[in-house]
Every structure is written in structure tokens, then in C-alpha cells.
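Journal club side-thread
Mid-discussion, someone asked how the predicted structure for our own chain would compare to the paper's figures. Pasting it here so we can look after the session.
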Amino acid sequence: MFSMLSVFAEFERSILRQRIMAGLARSTKRAGRPRLDPLKVKKVEKLLAQGVSLSVTAKKAKVGVGSVSRIKARMTDLKKAA
């Protein structure tokens, strides 16, 4: 008797998964946060190149300190690669 219940539960689970995957495929939304505006990235890079601190750069460019830190790390990686 229990094996029949498990068969039905597994079948129901597979149908549910198919519906979820179909809904995700139809969705036009992208997952995650949108990318930072390229103009803001250029502004942050310019301020960092001038030697402005992370927190002041974040306030002037109206972005988070983490975003500024990530841009700075990418800038240093590019310098090392060159």
C-alpha cells in the first residue's frame, strides 16, 4: 500500500516541477539585480583614479560602498593584467 502512495507522490511532484519550469521559461523577468549604469561606473572609476576614498566616492556617485569596492578591485586586476 505504501508503495502506491509513494508512486502517486512522485508523479504529483514531477507534474508540479514541470509546471514550475514552464512558468519560469515563460517569464520575461531576469533573475538578480540589474547591472550598474555604465555612466555611474565611469564616474566611480574617475573618482577612484583621483584618489578619492571609497565612502566619499560612493556618496558622490550615489552607489553603495560595496559597488565601489568591486569596481576598484576590477580596476586593480586590469592594471595587473596589463
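Post-session note: The mean pLDDT is 90.
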